[in-house]
Specification:
19 residues, mainly alpha, 1 helix, 0% strand
Length: 19
């Protein structure tokens, strides 16, 4: 998976943090 945008990274980080 390639980070095509900061929004995607942000969502991924939020999901990882929520985990």
């Amino acid at each position: 998976m390639k980070p095509l945008g900061p929004e995607l990274c942000l969502r991924c980080r939020l999901e990882t943090s929520a985990r």
